[in-house]
Specification:
This protein is mainly alpha-helical and about 500 residues long. Helix content is about 70%, strand content about 5%. It contains 24 helices and two strands. The chain has a two-stranded antiparallel ribbon with strand order 1-2. A hairpin with a 2-residue loop joins strand 1 and strand 2. Helix 5 runs antiparallel to helix 6. It holds the Pfam family TPR_11. It is found in: Cytoplasm, Cytoskeleton; Nucleus.
């Protein structure tokens, strides 16, 4: 371990001093170190303890004091070395064993810490600090066991809980911190995971596990190129890091497959794009954000292929993975509009508008609300059996067909229930024709207005409409020409 301060070996005057004089000189340095320690000037205390060690390298207490100072400076690995040297020089040095155990504990080596505290209790059976620290070491071992089970079961919240408890006694354990950070990343808590990994890398820039976690966060945030760089760096530091190797392979495969799908979509090869996005979704189920985008992309392709229900399902999966994914809400809302599921469309557009209050989103919401309102009225186009873009002639032909089909005289021999139903349909056909054959009323109807509220004359008689449409000087009648056969005859 490199030391700072006085070097006795380099001082020619020290060669002429006796062992007794050297010890006295070293004691002086130790006393000065103690004074600085009491004043909490740990850096100066470290320097003077180092001078004492240089003069008398066989004195266990000097190493013990310097270990205590290094612990105050949070340099636990160096403190561990000094405390181990202290007990090598004096196996009965209780404080040395105690400090060694404490360093092991802080660094997360609970088994080694337990052995040290047990040694202290052999030397002093009623040492309360050793008794408490031994309990802390046993707790850490239990939390490690629980965390291992939790990780295997993919209960990452349990692992984070266990690591938080373990870190209360093992605050300098990088292994526990990295496991916590990895589980935070797997839970989608990327800023927290990044923060933990970054703290470790500030202290140890070569920590392969921390580099892997940084890459994992970027990978799960869909920053795949940057993620690959961190995975490669992690593998440089730890060539056998299997998690980094697998993540790197998945990241590269995911990026390549997604780009292939995007290219196929741009070229209009929708079936191929659909297949490529489907393949990409099998690569890594844990990559939530990228998979959300892939589901949304596949939904876009699905809508192009008229697979609207599948597209809705894909959007729902994307939203389940990422509840803040506006694009997925918009795509699903459009699919709902295309399948005339207007209530669902309104709900999605409301969610979008609440999140991003843009003019475009407001317009989309208003349009959906209008279509919902229209859908709750009688659909006159469906009543006549025509398309919404039907011409005037097509509307007339449709009316003629439906009016003759449902005219009450045609069903005079049917049951009362059937007669009542056909009369109702006959009236609806007349109502539909009244609106759709009048350009002004049709325009108001198409724009979603309630015609009854517009002071427009909606009073009509279905029979009068029928007479007016078919004309004829002497009225009309339906006559049977055989069982179930009727023809229309003017009088």
């Amino acid at each position: 371990m490199a030391t700072v301060g006085y070097d006795a070996a380099a001082d020619p005057e020290m060669d002429s001093l006796s062992d007794e004089e050297l010890e006295r000189e070293a004691e002086g340095y130790k006393e000065q170190g103690n004074a600085f320690y009491v004043k909490k000037d740990y850096s100066e205390a470290f320097n003077y303890y180092t001078k004492a060690i240089d003069l008398c390298p066989k004195n266990a207490s000097y190493y013990g004091n310097r270990a205590a100072t290094l612990m105050m400076l949070s340099r636990y690995r160096e403190a561990l070395e000094d405390s181990q040297q202290a007990v090598r020089l004096d196996d009965a040095f209780m404080k040395g064993h105690l400090r060694e155990g404490k360093c092991h504990l802080l660094l997360g080596n609970a088994m080694a810490a337990s052995r040290c505290f047990q040694k202290v209790l052999e030397l002093e059976s009623d040492n309360s600090q050793a008794q408490q620290e031994l309990k802390n070491a046993e707790s850490i071992l239990e939390y490690e066991r629980m965390a291992e089970i939790g990780f295997d079961k993919r209960d990452f919240r349990m692992v984070v809980f266990c690591m938080d408890r373990a870190l209360e006694s093992a605050s300098a354990c990088h292994r526990f911190k990295v496991l916590k950070a990895e589980c935070l990343a797997l839970l989608g808590r990327y800023p927290e995971a990044q923060s933990v990994a970054s703290d470790i890398l500030r202290m140890d820039s070569t920590n392969g596990d921390a580099l892997y976690v940084r890459g994992l966060c970027l990978y799960y945030e869909d920053c795949i190129d940057k993620a690959v760089q961190f995975f490669i760096q992690a593998l440089r530091m730890a060539p056998d890091h299997e998690k980094a190797r697998l993540a790197c392979r998945n990241a590269k495969a995911l990026k390549a497959k997604k780009e292939e799908g995007n290219q196929a979509f741009k070229e209009g090869n929708f079936e191929e794009a659909y297949g490529l996005y489907s393949e990409a979704l099998t690569i890594d189920p844990n990559n939530i954000k990228t998979n959300a985008k892939l589901y949304c992309n596949r939904a876009t392709v699905g809508s192009k292929l008229k697979k609207l229900e599948q597209a809705i399902e894909d959007c729902t999966k994307a939203i389940k993975l990422d509840e803040s994914y506006i694009k997925a809400y918009l795509r699903r809302a459009q699919c709902y509009m295309d399948t005339e599921q207007y209530e669902e469309a309104v709900r999605d557009y409301e969610k979008v508008y609440q999140t991003e209050k843009t003019k475009e989103h407001k317009t989309l919401l208003k349009n959906a609300q209008l279509e919902l309102k229209k859908s709750k009225r009688k659909d006159y186009y469906k009543v006549l059996g025509v398309d919404k873009n039907a011409t005037e002639d097509e509307i007339k032909k449709a009316y003629r067909k439906r009016a003759l089909m449902h005219h009450p005289d045609r069903h005079s021999g049917a049951s009362a229930e059937v007669q009542k139903e056909e009369e109702k349909k006959f009236k609806e056909v007349g109502e539909a024709f009244t609106v759709l054959s009048d350009p002004k009323k049709k325009s108001r109807y198409d724009s979603g207005h309630d015609l009854e509220d517009d002071d427009m004359n909606m009073d009509f008689d279905a029979n009068n409409i029928f007479k007016a449409f078919f004309g004829g000087p002497g009225g009309f009648s339906f006559e049977a020409s055989g069982p179930g056969n009727f023809f229309f005859q003017f009088g």
